[in-house]
Design goal:
Elements: H1 2-16, E1 19-25, H2 44-52, E2 56-57, E3 61-63, E4 66-73, H3 78-87, E5 92-97, E6 107-109, E7 111-112, E8 120-124, E9 127-130, H4 133-141, E10 144-148, E11 151-154, H5 159-167, E12 173-175
Antiparallel strand pairs: 1-4, 1-5, 2-4, 3-4, 6-11, 7-12, 8-9, 10-11
Length: 176
């Protein structure tokens, strides 16, 4: 009996395991929120890539100027799917592996200790600059290209490392 239970657990665990990628699309008109006629998106090339890896597109959502969504597939297909999506640059701007369930792979919300320290000043060469040198150093290291309404976005897809770096700035950052 124990062998049957363990076998069923193994089948369930491996059958439901899915790797997830967060994708950022180049244009807001590439969407997959209303699939029709077997298509997952309104872009034939993107549909073909997803189909090649038996991937499923999950609902898309907006973040600032991004048109984003999650794609899931079998874990053994994840690397190849990520590579193929990454070279489809006419449609896909960025592909990040989902690091935590339901947590963006490239965005964080921050709270400042002082509302006047660490505020946005400008964007130079695509990197956000604030009025705080320590925060600017972190923003440079993690290629922060968006900072509005307490949300930041990194081009580096390293949200966990970014979070740790920001948590070390206790004189500037109250909460991540």
């Amino acid at each position: 009996m124990l062998k049957k239970v363990l076998f069923l657990f193994f089948v369930a665990a491996t059958g439901f395991a899915q790797g997830k990628l967060q994708i950022v699309l180049n244009q807001p008109n590439y969407v997959y929120d209303v699939p029709q006629n077997g298509a997952m998106t309104n872009n034939l090339g993107l549909d073909q890539i997803l189909s090649n890896y038996s991937a499923t597109a999950l609902p898309i959502y907006d973040f600032g100027s991004d048109n984003m969504g999650l794609v899931q597939c079998a874990p053994e297909n994840l690397v190849n799917l990520k590579n193929e999506l990454s070279i489809y640059v006419t449609v896909v701007r960025k592909v990040c592996e989902e690091q935590q369930v339901f947590v963006s792979s490239d965005k964080l919300m921050i709270s400042l200790v002082n509302a006047n320290d660490g505020v946005y000043v400008s964007t130079i060469d695509g990197i956000v600059h604030t009025n705080n040198a320590q925060l600017n150093a972190v923003f440079q290291d993690y290629e922060i290209d968006y900072y509005q309404d307490n949300y930041i976005r990194t081009r580096a897809c390293e949200v966990n490392a970014l979070k740790q770096a920001l948590q070390g700035l206790t004189s500037v950052i109250e909460q991540v």
